[in-house]
Design goal:
Elements: E1 8-13, H1 17-28, E2 33-39, H2 42-52, E3 58-61, H3 70-80, E4 85-90, H4 95-103, E5 108-111, H5 116-129, H6 135-143, H7 145-148, H8 163-173, H9 178-185, H10 189-203, H11 208-217
Parallel strand pairs: 1-2, 1-3, 3-4, 4-5
Helix pairs in contact: 4-6, 8-10, 8-11, 9-10
Amino acid sequence: MLQAPGNIGVAIVDDQHLFRQSLATLIQTVDNLTLVADAGNGQEFADMLSGIAEQVNVVLVDLDMPVMNGVVLNKLIQKNHPDIKVIILSAHTEERIMAQMLEDGAAAYLAKNCDKDELILAITTVHTAGYYINKVSLKALKNSSYIKNISLQQQDHSQLLTIREIQVLQLICQEFTNAEIADKLFISVRTVEGHRNKLFEKTGCQSTAGLVIFAIKHKFFEV
């Protein structure tokens, strides 16, 4: 389903030096991953980002850090470098926090005790598909009162989606890329991009993960 990821530039932002060092060692053992940078807090990474932004595809971000935490850093990256995918890697596993970070634009949310194979899978998946949501995240999205209380720009937006937009939305939820969606629906990539833009406009979502949240909430995609 996923396209070959090619080389992926990865950055790590975590104040726990030993954990950060272990992650760096892991990244450097994977052929298609390149460690671009690591930092001990959000501000440190933000200060270096302008000089390395073109090299970074995915950044692994802890939530609890001094000076600038992961919540603020994620918002900064979404605003100034939306092409960089953020994976939250945190000890916090509360459903409310997981759901909120995904809605705020994070491409994935993993627990710090996740398996190394899942971490590598998440990195490659967010690079190719734009997001990675595992079973724990899906459960959090379905159960979280935060998601249940999301107010859309208009309450009837879900009823205004066209059949084609719903088809595109469902394929997005299955982690297909724009090119793969175009092949499946026999339309051009440009047309798929147009449908994506319409979905963002109609739902008020700011990210691909947000579209998945919307689809789950409104039962366009069953998990």
